[in-house]
Amino acid sequence: MFLFKKLFNKKWIILIAGLMLSSACSQPKPGNIHYGVDACSHCQMIISDSRFASELITSKGKVYKFDSVECLAGYLKDNPESQKNAKLWVSDLITHDKWIPAGKAVYLHSQTIKSPMGMGFSAYETQTAADSMQTQYGGDVMNWDMVLNWTDRHMQ
Fold first, then answer.
1. Which of 20, 51, 71, 76 is surrounded by the fewest CB atoms within 10 Å?
2. For residue 73, how many C-alpha atoms fall within 13 Å in the half-sphere facing its CB?
3. pLDDT band at residue 12 under the 50/70/90 scheme
């Protein structure tokens, strides 16, 4: 009986420790923005349009929220150390609630599409979606590196 109690107690301790460790290591998921309430971590504007939102989640789980792709890019320019081991997310313009890793998204830079900061960047999950929007609204299709280069040259 004593051996059973001893093993039973060890199993519970291991189970509880494992649960605590897994919850401590889990990353927040993107998209937890309170629209009309949360402020952009770069420009401090209230984030109000889900079509253009973006997020940076650090390796420690801290979430930085942005009202536009260009604000995320500007923040990275001003805080290059913040992207080390961070996850960058952008909202898909078409679905509004689909979050895409920034490096995998396809971007359209079009002055016809009015983003919150007025620079005209929008993100899409697929090349086909970006190309379709380019046909409709004009502009240049870009990848993430091109967006970073463009904002680096044009943002103060």
1. 20
2. 27
3. very low
